[in-house]
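Lab notebook: predicted structure, single chain.

Context: the supervisor wants predicted structures on file for every construct in the current expression panel, including those that have not yet been purified. This is the next one on the list. No modifications to the sequence; it matches the entry in the shared construct table.
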Amino acid sequence: MLNSQVNDWKTSNWIDFITNVVLTLSDQNLVVSGHTENLSISGLFMQPLVSGDSIDIGESCTVKIMLRGDRSNLFIDDLAGEIVSCDEQGVGVRFKDRLEWYALFHIFGKKVNGMLI
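Prediction complete. Output recorded below exactly as produced.
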């Protein structure tokens, strides 16, 4: 069983993976859409579609990741997280628990034109 504490934010293996993501910020009741730049079992880094939203470090959030296929879509939602960085480069989110679907991103990362390579 995976440890529910994610203490390895900086030491996790990160993969470059671009897909749509939506953050719902708990304290501000604000929804921020964008795309991931990379992710790990312990968190993600994203580029918001609209800059200028006031996102506070330490704020709790809920994450929804959308994987789009040719004929279907897969949604991973209700991921609890915390904002750990926010600047002109993007927004960093640490998951409260490890991402149990992390292995899927390695498979989808090899998908080209609807075919696994």
